[in-house]
Amino acid sequence: MEQHEITLDQEVSRRVMAARLAIGLLQGVLLYWLYAAHRDLAWPATEPYLMGPLTTVLLILPVLSISSLGHLAPRKAAIWLLVALAVLLVLSLHDSWRGLNAWPLLSNWDQKPVFSPSTLVVSFSGVFFFIAHSMVTAGAQEGRRIASYNAYFETAWKLAIQLLFSAFFVGALFLVLMLGAELFMLVKLRFLRELLQKSWFNVPVICTAFSCAMHVTDVRPAIVRGIRTLLLVLMSWILPVAVVLVTGFLCTLPFTGLTALWETRHATAVLLSAAAVLLVLTNAAFQNGDAKVALPLRVAARTAAIVILPVTMVGIYALGLRVAQYGWTTDRVIAAACLLVASCYAIGYLWAAYQYDTWLAPLTTVNIGAAFLILAVLLSLFTPIADPARIGVNSQVARLERGKTAAERFDFRYLRYEGGRYGKAALERLKQATGPNAALLQREATAALALPDKDRWRASPRASAPVSVATNLTVWPAGVQLPASFLAQKWDAILDNVKPSCLTSAEGKCDAFVLDLTGDGKPEILLVEAPRGAHSVVYGEGEDGSWKAIAHLSYRLSVCQPLLEKLRQGAYSVVEPSFKDLNVGGQRVELEPEFVEGNLCDKFK
C-alpha cells in the first residue's frame, strides 16, 4: 500500500497539473461553443452526426485524459484514449443514426430542430467508462491484463471519491462566487452577479475547476484513502438496516400477495434499486476482502448475499408480467438488461455466501466477472446488437399483427417518438396495411408520421389511449353521470404533468367525484388516481365547453385512504373558505392556512 502512495506522488508533477488544467480549460471552451451553437441554432448543433458525437466525446474523453495523466505511460495512455474515442464515436454515431436526438427549442417551436446526444447514451457511457477506465488503470499499474481484485478495488474507489469531491469542489466554488456577488451588490456593484449569469464564464470555470479538483485529490492519495475508508465504514453499518428491511419485505409477500406490488406499475424499478443498495452496502463491508469486520456486519453481509437473489427473482417476475401484458418497450428492455446483470451478481453472491471456509472470498471473482458483463451489456444496448428501440418497436408491431393489441388501442405515438428510425419505418409499413383494420391503421399511421417533434411532450408516448375515458373512471356518487363534454374532451392536448394517467392510459384508473365547488350550479370533477391517490386534480368547464385543471388536492390528502373512503360514502359538504381572498392591484391573492400539526390523515379515521 505504501509503495502505491509513493509511486503516485512521484508521477503526479507540476507538468501534469499544468496539462490537466489546460485540458479542463479547453474542454470548457469547446463545450461553451457547442452550447452557444445549440442556443443560436447554428452549426454544428443542426447536424445530427456532428453535435451528438462532439458533445459525448467532450463530456467524457477529457475526464479520462485528466485521470490517465500521471498513472498511465504516454504510449499506453494514447492507446487507451484512442480506444475510448473509437467506442464513444460508435455509441454516439449509432445514437444519432437512431434518430432520437432531435430536440426543438422550447422557446421557438417553429425553428428547425437542434441535436444533442440522448440522456441514456451520455449517462450509460459514463458508467461504461468509469468501469473500463478503472480496470485499464489497475491493469496498467500491475502490468497485467487482468489485475488483482485489490488493484481494481483501490483504483475504482479512488476514482469514485475523486469524481465525488471534484463535483463538490465545483459546487462550493460557485457558492463562494455567489456570496461574493451578493457582497458587491451591497455597494451597488453588479459586475460579478452579471458575470455569473454568462455561460461563456460559467462553462469554462466549471470544467477548469473540476480538473483542478481532480489533480488536488490525486496528489493526496492518503487523504483520499482515509475518506474512502471512513465512507465505507459508515456505509457498512447501514447494511444491517437494509437487510432487515428487505428481508422483512420478502417475508410479508406470502401473506400480502403480489397484486398490490404490481398495481404500483414501478415494482421492477424499486426491486432493482433494492438489489443495487444491497450490492453496494455488501461491498462496503467486504471492501477488498482483507478488512477486519465486526461479527454483526459479517452476518448482515452474508444474509444480504442470500436475499439479493429472491429480490431479483421477484423483479424478473414483475417485468415478465408487464411484457406478457403489454410487450417490450425501451424502458422494459433496459430493465431486462439490468436484471440480467443483477441475476449474475445474485447467483454469484449466493454461491459466495455458502462458502463457509472463507468469508465471502468468492466475491472477488464474481465482481470482476460482473464488471466485464456490464461492459458487454452496455455495448450491446447502445449498438444495433440489442438496441432497445428496435426491440420495442418489433414487439409492439408483432403484438398488433397477432391481435394481442387491438388496432384502436395501439400506441402509434410510441412508434413515432420512442421508436426512432425503427418506429418510423414501422409506421411506413402500417400505411400500406391490409386486412380488416386496414383503414384505421393507415389513417393512424399517417397521422402519427405527420406529428411534429414538438408534440413529443404533449402526451405520454408510452401510454396507449383508452377506447373511452369512461371505462377508466369510477364515478361518485354512484349513479351520477359525467358530463358528455368531459368524456369527449381531447385529453392528449393537455401536458402530462397536469392530467392523471387515467385520462390517456388504458392502464390508468381513477375515482371521479362530481362536486359543485364554485357554487355556480355547474359540476366540477375531482379525479383521484387509484388505488393510492398519487395524483389528484379538480377540473372545471370553461365558457368554451372545454375542461381545464383549476385546483388540486394536496398529496398528503390524496393518499389518505380514510378521507377518500368518506368521499366515496358521500360524508362531505361544500363549505365557505376560512379566509376570504385579497384583491391587490386587481389581482386575487389567496391566503393559505397554517400547517396542521400531527398526522392530518388520522383526523379522518
Automatic annotation (TrEMBL):
Coiled coil: none annotated. This is DUF4153 domain-containing protein. It comes from the Bacteria. It holds the Pfam family DUF4153. It comes from Duganella guangzhouensis. Keywords: Membrane, Transmembrane, Transmembrane helix. The chain crosses the membrane at residues 21-38, 50-70, 77-94, 114-138, 159-179, 199-217, 229-255, 267-287, 299-321, 333-352, 359-382.
